[in-house]
Amino acid sequence: MVDVGQRNVEVARKGYAAFESGDVPAVMDLFADDIVWHIFGKSPLAGDYRGKPAVMEFFGKFLGMIDSQHTEVNDIVANDQQTVGMGTVTLKRKGLTLEPKSTDLIHPDSEGRVKEFWRFSDDQAALDGLLSD
Question: pLDDT band for position 99 (50/70/90)?
Fold first, then answer.
C-alpha cells in the first residue's frame, strides 16, 4: 500500500509537471470537483475560485495576461492532510521579469485530488504590480 503522504507528493509533482507542459486536462483531472483556489493580493486575479469551471476560467485569465511562466519546484513535503510545494516562479509580462519564491499549500481530498489550494509569494506587492495594468 502506498503511503498517503507519498501519494500526495506524487500528485503534486504530476500537477506541476502537467501545468508546466500546458496539459490543462491532466491538471484538471487532479482537482476535486468542488476545489477552491485562493489568489491573494490586489491584482485583477485576486479572489477565491470555487469549482473546476471557475478554476479553469482563472487559468485562462492568468495565462492570457502573461507572456510566459516557468515554475522550478525546489521541494514538496506532504502528509495525509496537506501538501506543501516550494519553488521559484519566473513570470514574464510586457518585457518585465519577476522571479518570486512561492509556497503552495494544498489540501487533498481522500482520493488525493486537490480540494483547496493557496499560493503564497515572498513579494506579493511586486506580483500584484506585474499582473495589474
Answer: very high
Whether domain 4-131 has CATH 3.40.50.1000 = no
Which residue carries 518585457 as its cell? 95
**Unique residue bearing C-alpha cell 475560485:** 49
| 64 residue type, one letter | G
DSSP the chain: ---HHHHHHHHHHHHHHHHHHT-HHHHHHTEEEEEEEEE-SSSTT-EEEESHHHHHHHHHHHHHH-SEEEEEEEEEEE-SS-EEEEEEEEEEETTEEE--EEEEEEEE-TTS-EEEEEEEETTHHHHHHHH--
End-to-end CA, the chain: 50
pLDDT tens by residue, 52-86: 999 999 999 999 999 999 999 999 999 999 999 99
Domain ranges for the chain? 4-131
